[in-house]
UniProtKB/TrEMBL annotation:
It comes from the Bacteria. Belongs to the HAD-like hydrolase superfamily. Cof family. Gene3D superfamilies: 3.30.1240.10, HAD superfamily/HAD-like. GO terms for molecular function: magnesium ion binding; phosphatase activity. This is Sugar/pyridoxal phosphate phosphatase YigL. NCBIfam families: Cof-subfamily, HAD-SF-IIB. The keyword Hydrolase applies. Keywords: Hydrolase, Magnesium, Metal-binding. It comes from Veronia nyctiphanis. The lineage of its organism: Bacteria, Pseudomonadati, Pseudomonadota, Gammaproteobacteria, Vibrionales.
Length: 266
């Protein structure tokens, strides 16, 4: 049976209003009491996730920024991979004249964005994590875990996905966390690689892991884990990439918690 449970947050473990529901919290606490290891595996910032973890009330590793950061249960940074500073500058230069995009950066302790987007605050009511503004003409380039871009037009963002891949090749990793959020990390960064590192630290292998996700930034993790489960509400590209993976219910129905309750706690 699996010893490590890794789950994405938005669209997966969290409810549609981006909260940990009471039943999910109870299941995760019972899972911990049984001796299972839970891992938050998300595109969010570690400061943000730490607030959610505190609310859940269990010690847990945190894979954040799509694998660019890993913190242990005591908040020690155990893995870090940045976007090269020169690449941060070049990426920003490619997009800075596009006024239809909002540009974001995650650094060690900061969430920076090119223009205020109050709509995003609803994603962070549980943790209280918030953002600060930065100037596209003078962007910070050091200690950048990821750069990401938001526009509510998936097809439009796919043009940038193609441009980034053609321009920078394997010097970066690119993934959609939602259809409207395109994310750029350093070379070789993924939740799958990070989960393998966590498993090794705990004395296990990927075969001992079960993982849940719904976004393109989850695909490597779902492929790598001993069992990867796809949310019913996952992006079509995810289901196409993982045609043989089991699909469970939606986050609105707390389907991750229900699966864990049925298969790991009975």
């Amino acid at each position: 049976m699996f010893k490590i449970v890794a789950s994405d947050l938005d669209g997966t473990l969290l409810t549609p209003d981006h909260q940990i529901a009471p039943y999910t919290r109870d299941v995760l606490q019972r899972l911990h009491a049984k001796g299972e290891h839970f891992v938050f595996a998300t595109g969010r910032h570690h400061v943000d996730v730490a607030g959610i973890r505190e609310n859940v009330g269990i010690p847990a590793f945190m894979i954040t920024s799509n694998g660019a950061r890993v913190h242990d249960a005591d908040d020690n940074l155990v893995f870090s991979a940045n976007v090269e500073p020169e690449l941060v500058s070049q990426i920003i230069a490619l997009v800075k004249d596009d006024t239809t995009l909002t540009c974001h950066m995650y650094r060690d302790h900061d969430w920076l964005l090119s223009r205020v987007d109050e709509e995003l605050e609803k994603f962070h009511t549980e943790s209280g994590f918030s953002f600060a503004h930065f100037d596209l003409d003078t962007p910070p380039v050091e200690n950048v875990a990821k750069v990401f871009f938001i526009r509510h037009d998936h097809e439009y963002l796919t043009r940038y996905e193609k441009l980034f891949k053609e321009t920078f090749g394997d010097r970066i990793s690119v993934a959609f966390s939602t259809p409207f959020c395109l994310e750029v990390m350093g070379a070789g960064v993924s939740k799958g690689i990070a989960l393998e590192a966590v498993a090794k630290m705990k004395g296990y292998t990927l075969d001992d892991c079960v993982a849940f996700g719904d976004g393109m930034n989850d695909v490597e993790m779902l492929e790598a884990a001993g069992k990867g489960l796809v949310m019913a509400t996952a992006q079509d590209r995810v289901k196409a990439a993982l045609p043989d993976h089991e699909v469970i219910g939606s986050n609105a129905d707390e389907s991750v918690a229900k699966y864990l309750d049925q298969h790991l706690l009975k």
